[in-house]
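User: Hi! I'm working on a homework problem where we have to compare a predicted structure to a textbook description. Could you give me the structure for the chain below?
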Amino acid sequence: MACGVISAAIAGPHWALADTPARTRVRVASVVSAAWLPLWIAKDKGMFAAHGLDVEITTVQNVSTVVGALGRQFEVSGCTPIDIVKARLRKLDVVGISGNTQELSSNQQMRLVANANGPVRSIADLKGQVVATPSLNGVIHIATLNALRQRGVDPKDIRFQEMAFANMADQLAAGRVAAAEIVEPYASAPMKTGVTSLGNPMLSVGDPVILTCWMANGQWAASHRGAVAAWRAALDDAIAYIGKHDKASRAVLTKWTRLPETVANATRLPAYTTRIGDADIETWIKASAAVGAISETASAVGSSFYDAKP
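Assistant: Happy to help. Predicted structure tokens:
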């Protein structure tokens, strides 16, 4: 270990070290989104290998569907804090091992937008309207419900329709939906019709608030503490790299997402962080319970691997 640290000091950044002889295999499930750029940077730039990890990435459509596979098909999966909460309510052995992105007022990824030519000018005008949502069970929708609750608007007076982000602009332009819960890169992409921002519901939950994170099988995390620490260290290196090498990072984004280069270059990148603790998860428990997204009594204690007792 000491020799490795000395070598790193001489050679430069420690993620530039040669592969270590014995690396821990980590099978990872992730979706395609700019949110997961640190994962791809750490893989492509050798940061995982430098920290002793052999990371295999599998792209899935919905990370919520792989929770039950943790510990068998996968060791680690991308997720949201509410995915961790719901898994633990189902008595599944999962823990949050690292943060990934956070929403904050200085770097906003989410918007609730309305057709500028329509009748909606504020959240209060959504009563009786159709609103597009990516998922009725996800953190984006929970945030919207929370913002409506805080403004005194009953969500039951609104009809929410699930659809892919890529289809929302067309549906807004056609007037089939009055508003949409949208995120980057779609939030800053040119629309076929003008839109009015109704604010960022995510900030109604917290500022900052953890938006995406990483979870693992609890038994695996407990028996691979070194690998968990290495995972976070590699992602920290990747986040630092993104901050210093914007052009190269966006090239990796283009490769993994297959977005047109012009879109990848124009995308507002999220605020990345590996920070996560029980308090971050508790924030989502409170918001979810307030809007009826969970009815069971839930506690965040032990949800974060780094807050859990040894």
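For your comparison, note the following. The first strand starts at residue 24 and ends at 30. Residues 1-12, 15-20 have pLDDT under 50 and may be disordered. Good luck with the assignment!
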